[in-house]
């Protein structure tokens, strides 16, 4: 895979309302491990749509990994213009910093929010322009990533070699337990 779409839960779906939440470090560790393995296997581009949560944490991980892997690039392709318009100032500042670390920034729809069709157009565009999906999603815990996973599975049926990698709640739990054990040693 040369280009991977990364997505997952929004922060609020995970009950994360602070940038200091300990769960963010676990999610970033899982993303770092998976993206690093993909880069070492030829990955060149990480694409996100800039959603507040897993996607922006993936962007932060990618920006950090770019320091070690000079061929790695980050693209942020939003569903519409100014998606951060109604975010609080702290979120806007963080988002602006992440955008400045991206290699490519664009929007699928060249207008502000106009309707849910923009999210569908985003998903179709991102699936069509990636070789695979890395998704933090647990089948046991429903949420917005389910829709992207369903689309990706349908896309994979007609697109040879389209890869789907999921990081489950159990995967995150294992990392958390490993971290806890490491802290005790």
From TrEMBL:
Transmembrane segments: none annotated. Coiled coil: none annotated. Pfam families: YpsA (PF06908). HAMAP family: UPF0398. PANTHER family: UPF0398 PROTEIN SPR0331 (PTHR38440:SF1), UPF0398 PROTEIN YPSA (PTHR38440). Belongs to the UPF0398 family. This is UPF0398 protein EJC50_08550.
